[in-house]
Amino acid sequence: MEPFVILAVSLLLGALIFFISAAVTGSRRAVPQDSNGSTVNEEDSKVSNGESDRNTASKKQKLQRPRKEKLQQHVFAHPLLATSLKSHSGNVSCLDFSSNGKYLASCADDRTVRIWSTKDFLEHDHRCVRANVELDHATHVCFSPDSRAFITWLANEETIRVFKMIKKDDGSFTFTAASEDFPKKHKAPIVNIGIAETGKFIMSASNDTTILIWDLKGELLATINTNQMNNAYATVSPCGRFVASCGFTPDVKVWEVCFTKSGTFREVLRAFDLKGHSAGIYSFAFSNDSRRMATVSKDGTWKLWDTDVEYKQQQDPYLLYTMKCNVSDPCRIALSPDARVVAISSGFSISVHSAKTGKQEEEFLNVHGEEIADLAFDINSRFLVSCGDRAIRIFHNVVGYRAVIEEMEGRLKKATNEAMRERLQQQVDDAQSALEAVCTKKE
Ligand SMILES: *[C@@H]1O[C@H](CO)[C@@H](O)[C@H](O)[C@H]1NC(C)=O
Ligand SMILES: *[C@@H]1O[C@H](CO)[C@@H](O)[C@H](O)[C@H]1NC(C)=O
Ligand SMILES: *[C@@H]1O[C@H](CO)[C@@H](O)[C@H](O)[C@H]1NC(C)=O
Ligand SMILES: *[C@@H]1O[C@H](CO)[C@@H](O)[C@H](O)[C@H]1NC(C)=O
Ligand SMILES: *[C@@H]1O[C@H](CO)[C@@H](O)[C@H](O)[C@H]1NC(C)=O
């Protein structure tokens, strides 16, 4: 008799679970269709302490997730680690700071884009809001220049989707996807996307030799053939003037995307090349004014370049120096916006160098449980951030603080004018107190 009872009970339970999950998935599908947007707006359950139950959408999310939550997290500690942002339940693939400095966007294969407030990087709790990417996930994310929208590359749809961020009265956000995604044009996997700071164009680059230039509405403006066998990396310069790529060939190619005075697209012109490596280039970076660039190559070196040149007069960029480094794919290089610091990630680790001397000053080993996918400095050069596994690591940019102190003290010695001296002294004091705050926290 007993086995029969157990069987009946488990059948009943099974049916019950089936109905519950059918109801949950059913209503889940219904949510985005009501609004026609591919997003749900909600506060992150982890951060809106105690308020998560208020929102039925976050309950559903929880029901689906218990198994993932149990996955072991990679453990990493370092005195210069300011914090780790942990809300994603999948590998984070891309990070971008908004140009107003207020937000960090991250996307992961957990079908969410998260927007973090940079203001509370040094607080105990980290607030973030979540935009859901329904039935897909974003592999790349990039803020619009006005920090009121972001674009994503969709892994399954293989195209660009624009999301508007609408701030509500209570300070939270609503995310709405544009009614139409960009047309599907790339024939190979994407390596990067970007938006010009001027707001004039969007770039997407695939790992064949194609870079596409779009207007903000998704009209194709130009197609660039990089002729580099493949594109390993490509980006828009932070000043919004240039697009550049690297790949199998040992140079970085830089183009200027030209517009008329009235803002209509004119043409894409070759600007300059960075030539000097002896093997393919993994990655490169611009400083925020595009006067410096850094490159890292399979040839086992990284280089810093002075790109503040009159390329229209056929002037070539100057190589400032070459440093040895032991790197392998995947490898990324980041240049702080103020061009004082270079960070290089390779595999699971990061090295941080003074841009003045090229010397390595810090090293972070095994930062992530997966290979590092992205590396960036915030716009004020205060933090270095990295991603790879589910966590986002935020490091104090002490190399940058030290560089500021050294540089400003040098200038102080030569300064004659009192106002100038005061300004320099203020910069030294600010950097010094930032550095001291990090050092006292260390203990
Ligand atoms: C993260 O990526 C690794 C390697 O690609 C994969 O094995 C792992 O399952 C991913 N983790 C999650 C949580 O998606
Ligand atoms: C929903 O989106 C589809 C295509 O993206 C569009 O044709 C339709 O008009 C939209 N409906 C509403 C109510 O916005
Ligand atoms: C492009 O990326 C895909 C997927 O990562 C890879 O299989 C392919 O070999 C790459 N193609 C080139 C030309 O690098
Ligand atoms: C470079 O790194 C690899 C793997 O991390 C290691 O085996 C090798 O010894 C390193 N080479 C040098 C010159 O440091
Ligand atoms: C670049 O960064 C420096 C230092 O943070 C800042 O003073 C400057 O205004 C920035 N320039 C641009 C074009 O963003």
UniProtKB/TrEMBL annotation:
SMART domains: WD40. Keywords: Coiled coil, Repeat, Signal, WD repeat. Residues 43-56 have a biased composition (Basic and acidic residues). Residues 30-69 are annotated as: Disordered. WD repeats lie at residues 85-117, 183-217, 274-306. Residues 1-22 form the signal peptide. Residues 57-68 have a biased composition (Basic residues). GO terms for biological process: endoplasmic reticulum unfolded protein response. One of its GO terms (cellular component) is endoplasmic reticulum. It holds the Pfam family WD40. Residues 398-441 form a coiled coil. This is Uncharacterized protein. It comes from Scyliorhinus torazame.
